[in-house]
Design a protein that fits this description.
By secondary structure, this protein is α+β, with helices and mostly antiparallel strands. The protein contains 24 helices and 17 strands. The strands form four sheets. It has a six-stranded antiparallel β-sheet. Strands 10-14-15-3-16-17 form a six-stranded mixed β-sheet, with helices on both faces. The protein has a three-stranded antiparallel β-sheet with strand order 11-12-13. α5 packs across α22, α12 runs antiparallel to α15 and α12 packs across α19.
């Protein structure tokens, strides 16, 4: 990074706008920034740091405190920094969070932190102004600007303070620090986050693997404890006990079932008998109910007979009603005719009045006729001015065409801008998606490791269970073989005793007094064996039993050896299982999680070509710039044509002065003339219509009088017909023996006559049926006793409940057995897999222990990496230290001075004059500064060489020169400046920050910060 221009406003001790142009200073190579203590030299770097990263040069200083206390309240605090990276030029502008006066009213309002980043490549410095800073890369959103700056530079604010603005005090502290303190400083100077992450990841993975095995084993123990067992052997014994208990409960259930079936059969027989008694009661109740309705039915039968006589008079009565209706209609028509005659007379009077009103509007007709003549004259004037109108129309058309072109350009520009915004949002989303993709891939890798560990543990657990089952089976075989061998031995010993006894009796029969015994040689035989000799087959039995015993003993030994073998296999598998940690989750659960991660990865869609998207946005930027230029050209064209149209319109209006302005348009004039003509014709038509309406109304009045006379005659005729019909109805009532009141009362019965007749007949059929059914039901229960159904139900309920409890107990016992079998199977599988997982994670746990310091030197991977990088820094530092000390001193690592765990982080200085190494604390003040400066420069060299992206074109060294002298000895100012000049010759500019006069004399090029009562200012010093 190479500074070009820094602009400050209301910043720190600078109340006004200050512009610092670094071009001449950087070109000189070695320059200084001088001034009194507290004048604001370091504020320049705070502004530079803030512009780039939004932070001050001192990390502990917050951004809002950077505002100048001397600045006017209306002046905004801001910092603009122009800098080059290689061949490209950038501009960054920031305004910190600050208070400012309200635009309206009293008080203050807060302005949020703002940041802008521009690409000014190809622009001269003078062309970069407040109105033109180049192509916008990021704006408003502070985080976007921060990320873009860090991406371009290759480092952040903390690294900027360490490798661009060299903090001498920290390196002097580093020289004299204790080993533990030096390690902490190195952690800050070097980025060892990768090694820290490796250590943490390995330890986390190892701890996780160990914890999973441990937790899974604990879970197995908790599962056994929850079931009341201390071990798997206790579980097996529990299964046998639960199985026996289940068999007992099944036998009890069968007994209870038989008893319940007997009780149910008795209940069903009693219920059948109870149904017969209930049916008899129901039939008797039905017959009583029908008997209670008998009187009502007889009354209804009499009503049916009378209604049949009355139904024959319905048609006569209907004719009377028709005559009454005709009388009513005739009266209504007579009233309507009378009213129509009155209305017709009124309408004739109104028509006469309307005609009189139209005759009174004769003056209005004359006025409209004169207005029509005037408008026709205006039309002739407009016809004469047609040429002027054509010129105006052409000018207006050109104006509209230019306006449409301008609007289209604006619309196209808006579309491209929206497309750019959309593409930018898509690019941002694509970057976020790729970040999520990497995150998911990381989680997937972790799940794969956990899945492998879980599968290994579950496999080991299954192996142990298999071996345990084999041991149990072999133990049963071995016990059977031992029992068989013991029985064969007993048979063999019995056969042997039998054979020996038979042989002794045989010998006893051959003994003679005084003759020696063939067995013992004695000549006396005090108690010879007695009995009958029956040794047939004893010898064969002896030999067969001996062979059987030997074979059984051989099988027992073989079974024992096989038991030892399977027991050894079990021990080996249990030992392997004990080395594995149980996983927190089963392999199937982890596999499901892997599936979800794969789904999440698939949901992200295809990868987006971010480089192509960025190129597309840049192309849109070029199109937008071109379209903005075209829009400006069209706006100028529109303004020109609008002026031309205005001039043509003014010339035409002069010719049309006599014609009112609202009638100068031919269509408007024609419309007005048409309206006036229409009004005139309307008045004339209205008078003609009024005359016609009067004649028509008089004719309608005469017709209404004739209609009234016809209505009077029709009313008289209808009354005569009504009297005749009423006389006939009265005669027929007398013939039927009914009065008018009785006839009216029977009308409801006439309407329900058929239903009532059917009801009477239905009742009589139901009565007979009920009587017969009651007789049959009584016969069915004759001689029977009604059962005690409730007692039988209680007995059945008692036995059914007992059976239900027996079934529940048996089902619960069987469920217990099934549950214990499932538990046993699951535990065997889990323990086998735990063994595999523990064995699989062994190398991981060993590696994690090694990189985290559990090795012979107690050295962590982070410390080792720091030491390796520190070697490079010391080597680069010695390239600077040697010429500054005339080759006397060389910095080297103290491999013996540090304790275990921090070996190789000590520093000592080798003195060529004495040929010995000594502590850095023995150096003088000037020598200490030189050593610290060499370390700082070495760090900058290592950082730039290690990262192909980081470019340190300019570095700044802050203070420390006051400890140097000007003599020809080690630590002289001249020698230090020679080294710095050598850095300049390597295409790197160096800025020195100092208040020491000797430095200012040696390096006059640069800037001087002058402190005043109302704030500070910056002066540029001339080149020498």
């Amino acid at each position: 990074m190479r500074p070009v221009r820094l602009t400050l406003q209301a910043f720190g001790p600078y109340p006004d706008r200050v512009v610092i142009d670094f071009r001449d200073a950087v070109k000189a190579g070695l320059f200084g920034i001088y001034g009194q203590t507290g004048s604001g030299k370091s504020t320049i770097f705070s502004a530079m740091t803030f512009a780039l990263f939004g932070e001050a040069a001192k990390a502990e200083q917050d951004a809002p405190s950077l505002r100048s206390d001397h600045a006017d309240p209306d002046v905004m605090t801001e910092a603009e920094f122009v800098f080059d990276i290689g061949e490209r030029r950038y501009v960054v502008l920031r305004r910190p969070d600050q208070m400012r006066p309200k635009a309206r009213g009293e008080g203050e309002t807060r302005s949020a932190h703002e940041a802008y980043l521009f690409d000014a490549t190809g622009m001269s410095l003078d062309a970069i102004t407040d109105a033109a800073r180049g192509k916008i890369l990021a704006e408003k959103k502070v985080r976007d600007v921060d990320a873009a700056v860090m991406e371009m530079l290759g480092y952040g604010s903390e690294q900027f303070r360490q490798i661009v603005l060299l903090p001498q005090g920290r390196f002097e502290k580093f020289l004299s620090a204790k080993t533990k303190e030096r390690l902490e400083i190195l952690r800050e100077l070097f980025d060892v986050s990768l090694y820290e992450k490796i250590m943490a990841d390995l330890k986390s993975a190892a701890d996780e693997a160990e914890r999973q095995v441990r937790d899974e084993r604990a879970l197995c123990a908790r599962q056994l404890a929850a079931e009341g067992f201390e071990s798997t052997d206790a579980l097996i014994a529990g299964i046998e006990t639960a199985t026996a208990r289940c068999a007992e409960l099944r036998a009890i259930e069968e007994t209870k079932k038989a008893t319940a079936e007997v009780a149910e059969k008795a209940l069903r027989q009693a219920e059948a008998m109870e149904e017969k008694f209930a049916a008899a009661e129901k039939m008797r109740e039905r017959l009583r109910a029908l008997e209670a309705r008998k009187d009502d039915i007889e009354t209804l039968a009499e009503q049916v007979r009378q209604a049949e006589r009355a139904r024959g008079l319905i048609d006569v009565e209907e004719r009377v009603r028709d005559a009454e209706r005709e009388v009513g209609e005739a009266e209504t028509k007579r009233e309507e005719a009378d009213k129509a005659a009155e209305i017709a007379a009124e309408q004739a009077e109104k028509a006469a009045e309307a005609l009189r009103r139209e005759e009174d509007r004769a003056d209005e007709v004359e006025t409209l006729r004169r207005r029509s003549d005037e408008l026709e004259r205006y039309g002739r004037i407009l016809e004469a001015a047609a040429d002027s109108n054509q010129a105006v129309d052409i000018a207006l058309k050109e104006q509209r065409d230019a306006e449409r072109g301008l609007q289209k350009a604006k619309s196209d520009l808006t579309g491209l801008q929206e497309k750019r915004t959309s593409k930018s949002a898509e690019l941002k989303a694509a970057r976020e998606t790729e970040a999520k993709r990497a995150e998911i891939a990381g989680r997937r890798a972790d799940l794969d490791k956990r899945h492998l560990a879980a599968k290994s543990y579950e496999g080991a657990l299954q192996d142990v269970a298999t071996a345990q089952a084999a041991v149990e089976e072999q133990m049963r075989k071995s016990e059977a073989a031992v029992g068989k061998a013991e029985k064969a031995r007993d048979d063999y010993e019995t056969a042997e005793r039998n054979l020996a006894a038979a042989q002794a009796l045989h010998l006893a029969t051959r003994l003679e007094a005084g003759s020696p015994c063939p067995v013992c040689g004695a000549t006396e035989h005090p108690a010879p064996a007695t009995g009958e000799i029956g040794s047939a087959g004893l010898d064969m039995a002896f030999r067969e039993s001996r062979e059987a015993w030997l074979a059984a003993d051989r099988e027992a030994r073989q079974a024992g050896e096989a038991l030892v073998g399977v027991q050894a296999t079990l021990d080996e598998r249990q030992k392997r299982l004990s080395t594995l940690e149980p996983p927190e989750e089963r392999a199937a659960v982890i596999a499901a999680q892997i599936g979800r991660e794969e789904d999440a990865l698939a949901a992200l869609g295809h990868r987006v070509d971010i480089l192509a998207a960025e190129t597309g946005i840049e192309e849109l930027e070029l199109q937008i710039e071109e379209l903005e230029r075209k829009r400006d050209e069209l706006r100028d064209c529109f303004d020109e044509r609008r002026s031309k149209a205005t001039e043509a319109k003014a010339a035409r209006d002069g010719r049309l002065a006599e014609v009112p302005e609202n009638l100068r348009d031919v269509p408007a004039l024609a419309a007005t003339l048409e309206k006036v003509t229409g009004s005139l014709e309307s008045l004339q038509a209205a008078r003609t219509a009024a005359e016609k309406a009067l004649n028509s109304a008089r004719e309608k009045a005469l017709g209404a009088v004739k209609d009234l006379e016809s209505a009077d005659k029709a009313l008289a005729d209808s009354k005569t017909r009504h009297q005749k019909a009423a006389e006939v109805f009265r005669t027929r009532l007398a013939g039927a023996g009914l009065t008018a009141e009785a006839f009216q009362s029977l009308k409801p019965a006439i309407e329900t006559l058929d239903e009532d007749r059917e009801a009477v007949e239905t009742y009589r059929r139901e009565h007979k049926s009920a009587s017969d059914a009651a007789t049959d039901a009584a016969s069915a229960i004759q001689g029977m006793s009604r059962p005690d159904l409730e007692a039988l139900r209680e007995t059945h309920q008692t036995h059914a409940e007992a059976l239900g409890r027996a079934i529940e107990e048996r089902v619960a016992a069987q469920s217990r057995v099934d549950h214990l079998y499932r538990l046993r199977t699951g535990l065997e599988e889990t323990l086998r897999k735990l063994d595999e997982a523990e064995a699989a994670s062994g190398p991981l746990r060993e590696l994690a222990a090694l990189v985290n310091g559990q090795n012979s030197q107690r050295l962590t991977l982070e410390t080792f990496a720091i030491g390796a990088m520190f070697d490079q820094v010391l080597e680069a530092a010695n390239l600077r230290l040697a010429p500054m000390t005339s080759g006397r001193y060389r910095l080297e690592r103290d491999l013996e001075g540090a304790g275990r765990g921090s070996r190789g982080l000590g520093i000592q200085v080798f003195d060529l004059h004495t040929g010995k190494s000594r502590a850095t604390s023995t150096l003088s003040g000037g020598e200490t500064f030189i050593a610290a400066l060499a370390l700082a420069l070495g760090l900058a060299d290592v950082v730039e060489s290690a990262s192909g992206k980081v470019r340190l074109d300019t570095i700044f060294i802050d203070e420390g020169f006051g400890s140097l002298d000007t003599e020809n000895g080690s630590g002289t100012l001249d020698q230090v400046l020679q080294v710095l000049n050598s850095i300049v010759r390597q295409n790197r500019a160096v800025g020195l920050i100092s208040h020491v006069p000797l430095v200012q004399e040696a390096i006059p090029n640069g800037f001087y910060v002058r402190k005043g009562i109302s704030g500070s200012s910056v002066e540029e010093r001339g080149l020498v």
